Amino acid sequence: MREWITGRNPVFEVLRAKRRHAFRLFAMRTMRMEGHLPEIFEMAKARKLPIHEVQRFELDNIERNNQGIAIEVSEYPYRPLDDLIKYSQSTGEAPFFLLLDTIQDPQNLGTLLRTAEIMGVHGVIIPSAKSALITPSVVASSSGASEHLLVSQFNLAQAIDRLKELDIWVYGLDEDERSRTPAQLNLKGGIAIVVGNEGTGLRDLVRKKCDEIMRIPQYGKIDSLNAAVAGSIALYLARQARG
């Protein structure tokens, strides 16, 4: 199956990551060669990728916010859970995973993937159903960060059991009667952070599987944080604790 990725940063990261098969590159005529464009064309030529100069309307037919460039590639390469675990073990660091429990908004998924990549998360696990998938819009909202992450589709409850076998502590991000702040938890060792659905939070079985429930302290007047923002804060605090 093929799909189109548009936008200069996403196209650049797709080519840089070299994880997808690329079929052709569309570039708008009379574009100024700035930003990542010279590198995009250099990588495309190195891969002997056909480059087509096209009119604006041809790119707009693919995606309105295209920034004058689009690449046709194979679908997103999800990985088996064991690949994520093996990669984590190869880093020499304590394990660091992100689990997303039925995140459904593509923008939220893209934001979380972007933060996960920047914070050095070893792998991301999403459910096999009832969850946003890594589509071209998610690649765009992650600014191409999704291309450098190892992402597995797996039953979350079973994934948590597998991670616990490896002495990884699992923190569900939510708020209930047993929730604790990051300052009250040990974020230095092997950990997995679980972010729940935008509206309903963590599913009951996933919540029960977590070792602890973590809440982000709030000091303002509104009573909740967006799932992507809360998850991003938690990942930053975990990375900070890990030094």
| CATH topology title of the largest domain | Alpha/beta knot
Round the Cα radius of gyration to an integer and report it.
19 Å
Largest sheet composition: 6 strands, parallel
The average pLDDT value, as a whole number, equals 95
User: Helix proportion of residues, in percent?
Assistant: 25-40%
* Strand order in the sheet with the most strands: 7-6-5-9-8-10
- β-strand number: 10
Distance between the termini: 41 Å
Helix/strand order, N-terminal first: EHEHEHEHEHEHEHEEHEH
Which structural category do the helix and sheet elements fall into?
Answer: alpha/beta
Outline the structure in words.
The protein folds into two domains: 2-74, 2-Layer Sandwich (60s Ribosomal Protein L30, Chain: A); 81-241, 3-Layer(aba) Sandwich (Alpha/beta knot). With 243 residues, the chain is of the alpha/beta class. A six-stranded parallel beta sheet has the order 7-6-5-9-8-10, sandwiched between helices. The protein has a four-stranded mixed beta sheet with strand order 1-4-2-3. Helices cover 35% and strands 19% of the residues.
